[in-house]
Amino acid sequence: MCKHIDYNLTYMPNQFNHDTQDEAGLEVHQFWPLVEIQCSPDLLFFLCSMYTPICLPDYRKPLPPCRSVCERAQRGCSPLMSQYGFQWPERMSCERLPAQGDAESFWIGLWSVLCFVSTFTTVATFLIDMERFKYPERPIIFLATCYLFVSLGYIVRLVAGHARVACNPDYQHVHYETTGPALCTLVFLLVYFFGMASSIWWVILSFTWFLAAGMKWGNEAIAGYAQYFHLAAWLIPSVKSIAVLALSSVDGDPVAGICYVGNQSIANLRGFVLAPLVVYLFTGSLVIKQGGTKTDKLEKLMLRIGIFTVLYTAPATVVVACYVYEQHYREGWERALGCSCPAERGRAGPDYAVFMLKYFMCLVGGITSGVWIWSGKTLESWRRFGGRCCQPRKPTSASMYSEASTALTARTGVASAGSYHKPVPLSHV
């Protein structure tokens, strides 16, 4: 029954004290009718991993199935068993099995929530005091806005679960070359579109800093090109996102559980992700280098913008390096995973820490954007905003004068000006 399962090494004796596969086979075959009617697509794998547990060459203990696999199998087959008077075996209780490791979900969730809080605070501060953030620093606000939506995409994955976002409906494999379902497409647009837009806004920030600090342009002169900045920052990611959707190149990320592009195709990774990021990083770094030669005496604001822009290059460089590492070794990883040859299986697998570093660096730019508003001016802006919202409005001077005039008229009995009409020549008006 387990001959064509996705692994070929097992560990005996199993947890039911079966010393041989023949003993395990005699007992597991009582569930064969349930496998035949396919009450659950996870039942066969669950039974085989229970009676013939997975054995890994570098791990000296049997590998039990995850609790989620057991729960899906029980959810599909337990009602049918109950119809014929059978109960789910106590020895296969799902509570006894380990829960799937969620270390990556915890860390990615923590980083995305921190990024959301930081960027939301930055954007909210801008909305209550727009006049404070002028060019050349205004691109930082749009950069934070992009990271706000990127973090929202990770939060959607955190709430909905990686299986509903990145996997097909029966949870058998991750999405590959698709444009749906809607939840997968939504996460893709939030992470990819706004992620690429954030890189372009960083290039624009570098350019505006160069104009202000290096070329000594004024705020109004830089603001005159704002429409072109927005055109580049939103149009280029839109074209790329539409191209990815039109080519059905959206796929599931098996580590982060999001929908992105290039997770299953090296060509898509190089064309839609790696190449644009390299171009943006090179362009922004070149502008910073050119501007750095003309900024001997900088005012405090220009110096802060310059430091923020330079510091952003560190996570951007790390992300590019992680993608280079991934696209260089992925074919070898896939061959080692799909081939049973000892030479291929002996290859080193991917470094898990590199992938986690990539996700952290993709979100740390948004977390650090909140540092920009850490000042007394921000507290003063929120204090004034709270005062406008919470304090009752006082009557205006016009209404006060009107009330005083009415009171005096009523008290003295003098008629209002409307009671007497004195003709005035038009030339006197």
UniProtKB/TrEMBL annotation:
Limits of the G-protein coupled receptors family 2 profile domain: 104-288
GO molecular function: G protein-coupled receptor activity; Wnt receptor activity; Wnt-protein binding
Biological-process GO terms, alphabetical: canonical Wnt signaling pathway; non-canonical Wnt signaling pathway; system development
Disulfide feature: 2-48, 39-77, 70-94
GO cellular component terms listed in the entry, alphabetical order: Golgi membrane; plasma membrane
Keyword Disulfide bond tagged: yes
Origin: domain of life: Eukaryota
Cellular compartments annotated: Cell membrane; Golgi apparatus membrane
Recorded topology in the membrane: Multi-pass membrane protein
Membrane-spanning parts: 106-128, 140-160, 180-213, 225-247, 267-289, 301-325, 352-374
Family of the protein in this entry: Belongs to the G-protein coupled receptor Fz/Smo family.
Protein name: Frizzled-5
